Amino acid sequence: MKFEDQRKRMVENQIAARGIKNPELLAAFLKVPRHLFVPEEYRNYSYQDHPLGIGQGQTISQPYIVAMTLDLLCLSKEDIVLEIGTGSGYQTALIAEMVKEVYTVERIPELLMNARIILKGMNYDNIHFRVGDGTKGWEKAYPPCSKFNKIAVSAAAPHVPESLILQLAEGGKLVIPAGNRMFQELLLVEKQGDQIIKKSYGGCTFVPLIGEEGWKND
């Protein structure tokens, strides 16, 4: 079966059938070729319903989990989005399809370099890249940006990093897996005035978020 047919089946069976109805989000999943972000030895499994290794001890997440994260963020064309954990670059591409600008941070230089090559090759011009501690967000990075409408965190933290809350704009939304190293809850965090409102959307398992306000790299 061709990759295009596999991608269509993935969207229908793994994403839309599980309740994701946002037409712009479904269109992004139909457009972005997930197999380009998967190591060649796993490419035949690109559109299956599970995560895959991408090297450096990291993974490309299960398609439905990515869809759920982006659906909870309610992305719009005017959004400035911060992504923590570039990883393969697949989620970065999906976000870039739907918003004004993406600022993405990756701790592992080799992963960021590979993702950047793929994304630049796909002619995305609204993505800014940074190697650094994702728990600190876009702090002191270029181009300068201090507030984000939406923040997507692709690794599991013991708690929501305070630096990310500070960089979330008023009325903004942040999605993050939080818990222990073995099991987390997918949290939607919303900033409404002086209030930080958190809601859980079920259990999940992500690689750990390493950094000053996350897990230590031991």
- Beta content comes to 25-35%
Q: What is the topology, as strand order, of the major beta sheet?
A: 5-4-3-6-7-8-9
The succession of helices and strands, N to C, reads HHEEHEHEHEEHEEE
Largest sheet: 7 strands, mixed
- Basic shape: globular
Compute the number of helices: 6
Percentage of residues in helical conformation: 25-40%
| Low-pLDDT segments | none
Cα(first) to Cα(last) distance is 42 Å
What report would you give on this structure?
The chain is built from six helices and nine strands. Helix 2 (23-31) packs across helix 4. The model has no long low-confidence stretch (mean pLDDT 96). The longest helix has 13 residues, at 3-15. It is globular and about 50 Å long. With 218 residues, it is of the alpha/beta class. The protein has a seven-stranded mixed sheet with strand order 5-4-3-6-7-8-9. It has helices at residues 3-15, 23-31, 63-73, 90-98, 109-121, 162-167, and strands at residues 52-55, 58-60, 80-84, 101-106, 127-131, 148-153, 168-179, 184-192, 195-204.
